[in-house]
Design brief:
By secondary structure, the chain is mainly alpha-helical. 65% of the residues lie in helices and 6% in strands. The protein has 38 helices and 13 strands. The strands form 5 sheets. The protein has a 3-stranded antiparallel beta sheet with strand order 2-1-8, with no helix packed on it. Strand 5 and strand 6 form a beta hairpin.
Length: 1021
Amino acid sequence: MTPEQSLVQQIQQTLNAEQLERNPNLEDLALQFAELCIAANNRLANCADFISKGRRSEAVHEAHNLPDLLQLADLMEFEGIKKWRNLCSDMELAVAPALNAENLEKLRAAVNAEEGLAPLLKDYRRCVYQGDHRGCIVLLRKIIALDSENPSWKDNLRPLEEEALPELVQQAEKALASGNHVRLKTLFEELDAPHRVVKAPDELMSRIKRELLSERAEDVKREAYDLLAKLRPAITASDGTLVEALLEKSTAIEQNDAFLDRPETWDSTLAEAREMLDLQSRRRAKQEDFLKAIDELQAMLARGGYSEMELRHEWERLLAWELPVSDMLRKQVEEIFADIRARKRRKVRIATIASVSVVIILLAVGGIVAFIKAKQLNTDSMVYQVEYLWGEEKYGELEAYLANLSQSNPDILHIPKVEDISRQLQEYKKTVAKHKEALNFAMDNLNTIRSSKYDGATVEEILQLLKDAELAAKQLSDDAALARIKAWRSGWEDWKERRGLQANSKIKEAVATISAALDEQKRSPFHDFEDEREKIQSLTTVANDARPYLVLGDEVERQRFVDVQERLSTWEREFDQRYKSFMSVSSELEKLRGAIPAAIMDLARYKSLMERYVEIAPDMDTLKKEYKEVLKDFACYEGAMLRASATLVTVPPTADMAMELKKQLDAKGEGITLKGSVWEADVQEALHFYSLHMDLKRKLNNLMNANPELFNLFYVKYRRKGEEDWRKLYSPRPLMSGADKEDATVKLYWGEVFFADSPQSKPIRVHTKDAFPDRLSSKDYDIEMHLRKEDNRCEYAKYLLRFISEGSESKNMPVYLLNGVQQLLDDNKIEPVLRALLIKRIMALLVDGLGDVIPEVVKMSRDFAQVPTDVPWMNPDHPDVKAAERKLKEVVKSTIRPADIIARLKLHCNLLESVLNCKVRCVGSCVQNKDGRLEFDLRGGNYSELWGCFVSAPGVAPHFSVVSKDGRTVLPGNADACHLAMPLFAPAPGYATSDILDALKLDGDTARGMRFPKAWPRNAN
C-alpha cells in the first residue's frame, strides 16, 4: 500500500468513526491531505505548462512519475471527499483544494494522444538502453514527423546528430577524395534528411552536390556555351523570335541542378538579350499606337464636319510620333488644307462683289424712281409708287421718295394709305436703329475685347455678344456685319486654340506640381504640422492660379485637374482631422503629464494613465520612452505592494498563515499574486520553515521507532555487599522479584539481562541465573528498583518520551530540537554514548532543513558524527566506551554551543519576519526638476528611507535597493539606477533597514556571514 493510499484509508476510517473531535492526529491528517492536493495541483499545472509549450511527452512523463498523477487523481476523489472537506472547514482545519479539472482533462487528452506514439517511443527507449545512437536518430525523426510541435524531440535529437556529424563529415571527405558516388549519394541523403536538426556545413554539401552532378555538369556547361554561340548572332540580327526561344532554353539550363559552372559572359549576354526583347516590345507598342492614330485621322477625314483647327490638331499629334507617314496621306491632308484656304479666299471675293453690286443697284433704283417721279405726276401713280416701294421693302428709296413728295407734293402724304405706310416706315426705322445700336454695341464691345487680347470678358460674355451681334446683323440683313462677326469669331477661335494650348500647359504644370507633392507626402509624410500646412497652402495657391485656365483647357486636362484637386482637398481634410486630433491628443497629454505623478498612490490608476500616455503619444515624445521603461517593469512594482496591507507573519507561520501564503503563491486568475514578486523567495522560505517545522514534528515521533530496543530498555541499580559503587544492570523487560522459598527474608530477582562478565567484554543477553551463579538476591547484593515499572525504564527512554510529548506543543521545532541538544549536553543522567546517539539523530533532522540557512548546524552535526556510538555502552568499563566518552568530551568542548545556533536562528527568523511585515507601500515617484535632474515627488508625508524596486535582467527575480536614506537625496551609486516616473517605496514606520538592524542588535560583525532575506534591500547591509 502506498503512503497516499494509506493516508486516504486513514481519512475514510476517521470519517466512519462515531464521534469526531479536533486532535493533533486529525490536524495532521488534514494538513497531509491538503498538502497532497496542493502538490497534485502543482504537478497538474506543470503538466499543463508542458502541454501549452508543445512538450506533450514531458507532460505525460511527469504524470507517470510516482505517484502516478492520474491514479492519484482517481484516489483523491474517494467516496466521502465532500464530507471530509466540510469536516475540515467546520473544524477550521486545513481544507484540501479541489483538483484543477481543466488541467486534469488536458492531461488525460495528452496521455491518450501519446498512446499513438507508444510503439515508436518503446523502440526509442530500447535503442537508448542499448546505446544504439543511429536507431535513436531514425526513430526521433519519425517521432518528429508525427509530433512536430513538441520541441523536446528536437532537443533529444540535436546532441545525437551533433555527435554523429563529425564522423559523417569525415566519411564524406573520404568519399569525395575517392570519387565514390554511391557512398556520396547515401551520405548526402543522410546529411539532407527531412527533420534533420543539426545542419551539415553548407560548403561540404555544395561540394558533395557538385561531385554528384559532375558527370552531368560538363554536358550542361557545353549546352550553355552552344546557347551563347547562337544567342550573340541572334541579338546582332535583332531576331526576336530566336532570342526569345533561346532565353526559354537558358531558363531550363539554369534550373538544372548540374549547372554548376556558368560561362563568364552568361549573365551579361542574357541581360542584353532581355533588353533587346524589351526594346522591340516597346517599338511594337509605339508602332501600334501610331497606326491607331493614323486610323483615327483617316476616320475623321472620312466622316467630315471637322474644322481646320481640329484637323490641324490631329495632324500635328500624328507628326509628333516622329514616325514616317505615307505620301498619300500627307498629300491628302495638304490638299484639304489648300482647299480650306481657297474657300476662305472665294468668300472674301464674293463679299466684295456683292457690296459693289448693291451700290450699283441702289443707283439704278434711284434713277428709276427719278424717272418714275418725272413720269408719274398723278397721285395714283405716286401712291402706287409708295405702296410698291413698301411692298418691295425698299425702305431707303421709300424714305427718299416720301421726302421728295413732301417737297414737291406734300398733299399726297396726307392720304391715309400713304400716312399708314409712312407711319410703318417710321416704326421700321426705329427698329432698324435699335438693331444697329445693338449691332454697334456688340461690335464695339467685341472690338474692345479683341484689343485687350480677349482678357476683358469671360467665354460666356463673348458668346452672348456674338449671338447679339449676329441676331442684329441678320435683322438688318447686313452681310458685311455678318462677315465681320464671322471674321471676329474666327480670330477668337484661333486665339482660343492658342490659349488652349497655353492653358493645357499651365494646367499640366499645376497638376504635375500638385501630384508630385501628393506622392512625396505619401512616401515621406511631414513630421511638422506647420510645414505641412504651408505646403498645403502653397499647393492651394498653385491650384487657384491654374483655375482660370480651365475654361480654355481641353476636357482631358480639366478632368486631371479635377482629380488632383480632389486629392488635394482630401489631403487638406485629412490634415485638418489630424491637426484637430493632434491638438486633442496634445491637450490630453498635457493633462496626463500633470495627472500621472499625482496618481502614484494608486498604482492601478498610475499604470492606466501611463498606458494611455504611451498609447497616444507620438514616438518622438521624450516621456513616452521613460513611461515604457516603467511599464515594462510594472509587474515588479505591483508585486512590491502585495504585502502593504497583509496580515502579520511569524516564522515559522501557523497552519492558517501557511495556507494563506500558499494560496497567494498558487492563485490563478485572481489578480496579481506573490508568484514572481520581490516577496516570493522570502514567502517560500517562510513556508519552508513551516514545512520544516511540521516535518520535524512528524519525524520526532519516529525517533521512538528508530531503536525500539532502547526505548523498551529497563535497568536496576545493584552493588555487591560491602562495595561502594553502584552499577546498572539493563534488561529488555522489567525483572521479576519474589521471596526466597528457603529464607523469606531474602528477596530474589530474575529475568533476562545484558551482562558483561569482564571490563573488556561486550554485554550479552543472558538469564540472571547464568549471569549470577549464586543468584541475584538481596542477600548478596544491594538492589535499587522503583515500585512502578515505568520508573525503571532507562534514562534514554524517559528523556525521549518526555521530549517527544513536549515537542507536540512546540511552535518552532528547529529551536525546540536545538534546545533539546543543549539539554542533552547538560544532562548527566543519560549514558554518554546514548546522549551522543540522540544528539546525532536530532542534528541529522536539522541539517536537511537548516543547512543552507545556518551553516553552523552542519558543522555541529559533523563534529558529533566523530563520536562513535556503535560501542558496547552497557559496559561502562569497556575500552571502546571509555574512548567514546573521551571523544564526546572533546567534541562538547570544541563544538559550537547550541545556544549560539539558536540565537543565530532566532535572529534569522526575526529578520525574515521583519522584512515580511514591513508593509512596504508606494509613496511617490521620480520626477524631473527644472534643471533636468531627477528628484523625489513624495506624497502623504515625509519618509526617513526610500526604496526602489529593480529588475536586473529578464527572468531574474526583482529586488529592493535603498535609493535614499533621508527621503530627499539620492544615495551615491543609485542615480543611474533611478529613472523618470519610477515608483518609490517606503517601509512602515519603525521598519526602515536601520530600525530593523537596531531592534535586532545586528551590527556589522554579527551580520557578516548571515544570509539576508531576498526582499532585504541589497545595499542595506
